[in-house]
Amino acid sequence: MKRPRPDSLDGWTTRVQTGHSTIYVICNEDPDDPSRIFEVFATPSKSGAETCESCGQPKDSTAPQCEKVYLEALCRIISLGLRYGVPQEDIIEQLKNLECVRVRDPDMNDWIKSPADGIAKVMEAYSGSKNR
């Protein structure tokens, strides 16, 4: 059964450098169990570059809009799964290590292999910090 979304949730935002852009990942915690994630959002930052260093797509191409739509779709499915009780560890396992263009993220001190991998690593870090 899908759990209803409360009017207000606590959470945190993490900046993640991917091979195509910087994204901001928001994890909101489950009000019944703060060690669990209730929903996830991700959005790309606006880049000042003329082209993507990794794929060479021009800034005015459809690539930024496609990335935004991809991230929104991915996060909707993640959040829906979480609200239906899919264990966050299973979601993390499915997304982690999917590779497109990898880049070292100095803030996370890890290789980020794709936006999906970045989201999984943020979810994993959130879970680990709440279970200590």
Describe this structure in words.
The protein is of the alpha+beta class. The chain has one domain. It is 34% helix and 26% strand. The protein has three helices and five strands. A three-stranded antiparallel beta sheet has the order 1-2-3. It has a two-stranded antiparallel ribbon with strand order 4-5. Helix 2 runs antiparallel to helix 3. The longest helix is centred in the middle third of the chain and has 21 residues. The radius of gyration is 15 Å and the shape is globular. The two termini are 29 Å apart. The model has no long low-confidence stretch (mean pLDDT 87).
Structural class: alpha+beta
What is the typical, i.e. mean, pLDDT? 87
User: Helical amount among residues, as a percent range?
Assistant: 25-40%
Backbone shape: globular
* Quaternary structure: single chain
User: What Rg, in angstroms, do the CA atoms define?
Assistant: 15 Å
Number of domains: 1
- The rounded distance between the terminal residues' Cα atoms is 29 Å
What's the total count of β strands?
A: 5
Q: How much strand content do the residues show?
A: 25-35%
- Note poorly predicted spans: none
Number of helices: 3
- Walk across the major sheet and give the strand order: 1-2-3
Q: Helices and strands, in N-to-C order?
A: EEEHHEEH
Sheet bearing the most strands, described? 3 strands, antiparallel
